[in-house]
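Sample entry (185 residues):
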Amino acid sequence: MSPPTDLKYVVDSEIKEWHFHIYFKQRNKDEHREALELRDAVLRLRRDGAFVAVPLFRVNTDPIGPHSIGSYEIWVPSETFASVFSYLCLNRGNLSILVHPLTREQRADHEVRNAWIGPSFPLDLSTLPLRSDEVPLQYPILKLGYSSKAPQLSLEERLKLGSKIEELLEKDEEAAKAPARDLLD
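Predicted structure, serialized as tokens:
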């Protein structure tokens, strides 16, 4: 099956919220301390406006849900995903981080739509539902992610932007060229 290329479908299915699960071996005092220091740093940077990221108050010192070792969760809206991902890549130390989207399909989010920063750990997917009726909104008071009311680029604006980018890259020998638009596109 080919990846979708219908612009409306792709825009409508964009993921708006993410979880970062910071893993630490619960019997390793150094890793536990390192995980808590990273959490505190994220909280300070959120306070100072570097990005929006909401660590849960709870830190799991035992396995919980699908997570096989100690962990805590950080909710991140798509608006600041790149900033948080960058920060955690550069500052995770020896910790591993599971990154997954929030959609109606929690099991797929953890199993096939995930990414790891650092070594991966096994997950117990039997604890997760296959599908939920609703997208799991978190922190709607922030009006970010799925709760955002900010204006988005229209499909026409996106088409113009794409054409402009193709025009700017036309003479760049290193950039791959997009195929010509068909009448069916």
